């Protein structure tokens, strides 16, 4: 026969309420055990352990609320540039009783609900910051976000403002050297490897450097509100050295001389000067490029083939000038000149070329105009009417036939001015052009008076005075030990101190002195000439020219040497020594000297 099992007591939770069902017979009672966050009372007594219960028992419970207090600490950086909040949030836990199915042993399980919140209200927070001295740079937006979404940890809550740095005084260099010059690519695609323009040079009045004033910084603030002052701008003392001058306001340096700008700068001082000399420690070649310098140039080595050196001052070459062009406004000194063109005196050389034909033209025209009256009177005596214009033409044709050729020479020189890098004064161009139009055209025959002619002569005379002034202030000489296959021009003296000058043309506005040999070339000087030995035993053409009134002295001369004084020309016909020139009563050149028999070493 089957045994009927008695039902045990049951307990359960539904919708937050505890229910109990008694057992059948002597079956076990339902047992309730309190869970986490629940306090249990049975018949008014709080139960801590598992407790049997009946339907008749008064069962109550209470869910707990637990709170772990948080904290907020203000931390300030030692330099007071920042402030931090060290936040530990308040932890508040509430419990909700969970429903459960009927069961003999019921555990009152709960669902904990944890809420994290700031320990302080926002106003309390701001008060705490003020109490800790934090009043500047507070991150209001972050505070708002912290209360919307609390986060534990260390947070930047305030940040000071760093002072804005000042702009220090600086010196801007207006002229600088090109350390690594590059070849220039021309428009036609060719490459210029020579005009590198590596070496800067300046003329008086050039602004070399400008000081830029400093700009004060702006103060900052610490988080406690203290002002942090910006440092003062650093001062740079601008000084002018040799060849330079400081502007009245002290803010710029201006060149007072021409030459090489030199800058020496430290953290607190900049000294700007102008060195009148550019020194090339080696050779002038493709590495240096051509030299075009305002000032003097000292080349310790040589000037190589196809290179060019130009200077407004002197040029010194310790080695050779070989296959090159050297032009100086001042003196040129070199060891030797080989297959080169050398000019000393700069633009003065050009004006020297203008001086002679212009002087001759002015003299001829003045005398021709003075002769017009006599020509008109002679015509009247023959009952012939002769206007001043035609009369002047007759005077020029009869006595001054050189006038047309002199004007043509001046016109040619005027057209050649750009070759000498000269921009002629408009007065010079106008006076020569007017002379060309009147004396080389057909208009002179129609002149009934000479007013225009006289004005042209006066203008030419004024130009002559200007050119004479330019020439007189620009004497420069060439000094060399040896020269071969070259062309030398100087507005001053030419001195050849060594072996001599071979196959070289020399044009000097001063005197020429050749200690050694002058052979196979043409020499034209405005002063006296001294030559150790002229010509050769094979009669190589050697020409020596000086103006009327100047002297030529030849220590030795071979036959075939041509000597010209003014328009008088004589040729040495036999070997002679100790030769001096003189003009006899007939106006002819006489060579005064002693016969000389060349030896084997005198060729």
Percent strand equals: 35-45%
Regarding quaternary structure, what we see is: single chain
Choose one word for the global shape.
rod-shaped
How many structural domains in the coordinates? Answer: 4
Uncertain runs are: none
Q: Fraction of residues in helices?
A: 10-25%
Indicate the structural class: alpha/beta
- Total E-strand runs: 47
> C-alpha Rg, in Å?
56 Å
Q: What is the typical, i.e. mean, pLDDT?
A: 89
Count of discrete alpha- or pi-helical segments spanning 4 or more residues: 7
Biggest pleated sheet:
11 strands, mixed
- For the terminal residues, how far apart are their CA atoms? 169 Å
Which strand order does the major sheet show? 27-29-31-33-35-37-39-41-43-46-47
Fold and architecture overview:
With 603 residues, the chain is of the alpha/beta class. It folds into 4 domains: 1-160, no CATH class; 176-213 and 236-275, OB fold (Dihydrolipoamide Acetyltransferase, E2P), CATH 2.40.50.100; 279-344 and 475-602, no CATH class; 347-457. The chain contains 7 helices and 47 strands. The strands form 11 sheets. An 11-stranded mixed β-sheet has the order 27-29-31-33-35-37-39-41-43-46-47, with no helix packed on it. Strands 28-30-32-34-36-38-40-42-44-45 form a 10-stranded mixed β-sheet, with no helix packed on it. Helix 3 packs across helix 4, helix 3 packs antiparallel against helix 7 and helix 5 packs antiparallel against helix 6. The protein is rod-shaped, with a radius of gyration of 56 Å.
């Amino acid at each position: 026969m089957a045994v009927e099992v008695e039902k045990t007591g049951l307990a359960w939770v539904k919708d937050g309420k505890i229910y109990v069902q008694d057992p059948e017979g002597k079956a076990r009672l339902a047992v309730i055990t309190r869970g986490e966050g629940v306090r249990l009372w049975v018949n008014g007594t709080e139960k801590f352990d598992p407790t049997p219960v009946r339907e008749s028992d008064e069962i109550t419970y209470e869910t707990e609320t637990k709170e772990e207090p948080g904290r907020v600490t203000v931390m300030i950086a030692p330099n007071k540039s920042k402030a931090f909040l060290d936040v530990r949030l308040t932890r508040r836990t509430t419990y909700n009783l969970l429903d459960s199915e009927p069961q003999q042993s019921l555990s009152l399980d709960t669902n904990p609900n944890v809420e994290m919140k700031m320990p302080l209200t926002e106003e309390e927070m701001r008060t705490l910051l003020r109490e800790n001295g934090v009043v500047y740079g507070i991150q209001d937006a972050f505070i708002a976000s912290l209360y919307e979404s609390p986060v534990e940890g260390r947070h930047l809550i305030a940040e000071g403002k760093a002072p804005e740095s000042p702009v220090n005084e600086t010196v801007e260099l207006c002229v600088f050297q090109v350390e690594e010059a590059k070849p220039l690519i021309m428009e036609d695609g060719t490459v210029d490897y020579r005009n590198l323009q590596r070496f800067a040079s300046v003329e008086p009045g050039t602004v070399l450097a400008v000081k830029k004033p400093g700009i004060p910084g702006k103060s900052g603030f610490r988080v406690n509100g203290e002002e942090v002052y910006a440092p003062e701008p650093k001062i740079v003392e601008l000084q002018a050295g040799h060849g330079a001058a400081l502007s009245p306001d002290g803010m710029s340096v201006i060149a007072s001389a021409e030459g090489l700008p030199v800058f020496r700068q430290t953290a607190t001082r900049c000294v700007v000067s102008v060195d009148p000399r550019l020194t090339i420690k080696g050779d002038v070649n493709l590495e240096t490029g051509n030299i075009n310098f305002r000032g003097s140039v000292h080349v310790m080595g040589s000037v190589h083939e196809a290179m060019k050196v130009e200077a407004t001052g002197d040029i010194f070459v310790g080695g050779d000038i070989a296959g090159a062009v050297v032009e100086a406004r001042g003196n040129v000194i070199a060891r030797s000149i080989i297959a080169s063109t050398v000019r000393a005196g700069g633009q003065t050389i050009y004006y020297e070329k203008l001086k002679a034909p212009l002087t001759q033209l002015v003299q001829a025209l003045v005398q021709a105009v003075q002769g017009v009256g006599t020509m008109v009177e002679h015509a009247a005596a023959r009952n012939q009417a002769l206007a001043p214009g035609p009369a002047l033409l007759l005077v020029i044709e009869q006595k001054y036939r050189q006038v047309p050729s002199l004007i043509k020479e001046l016109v040619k020189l005027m057209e050649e001015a750009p070759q000498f890098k000269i921009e002629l004064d408009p007065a010079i161009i106008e006076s020569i052009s007017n002379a060309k139009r009147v004396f080389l055209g057909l208009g002179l025959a129609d002149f009934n008076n000479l007013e225009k002619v006289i004005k042209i002569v006066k203008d030419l005379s004024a130009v002559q005075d200007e050119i004479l002034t330019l020439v007189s202030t620009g004497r420069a000489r060439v000094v060399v030990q040896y020269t071969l296959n070259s062309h030398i021009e100087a507005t001053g003296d030419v001195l050849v101190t060594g072996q001599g000058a071979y196959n070289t043309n020399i044009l000097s506005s001063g005197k020429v002195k050749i200690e050694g040999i002058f052979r196979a070339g043409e020499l034209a000087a405005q002063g006296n000439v001294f030559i150790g030995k002229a010509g050769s035993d094979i009669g190589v053409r050697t020409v020596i020219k000086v103006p009327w009134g100047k002297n030529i002295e030849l220590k030795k001369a071979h036959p075939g040497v041509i000597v010209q004084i003014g328009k008088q020309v004589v040729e040495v016909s036999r070997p002679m020594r100790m030769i001096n020139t003189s003009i006899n009563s007939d106006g002819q050149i006489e060579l005064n000297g002693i016969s000389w028999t060349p030896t084997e070493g005198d060729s």
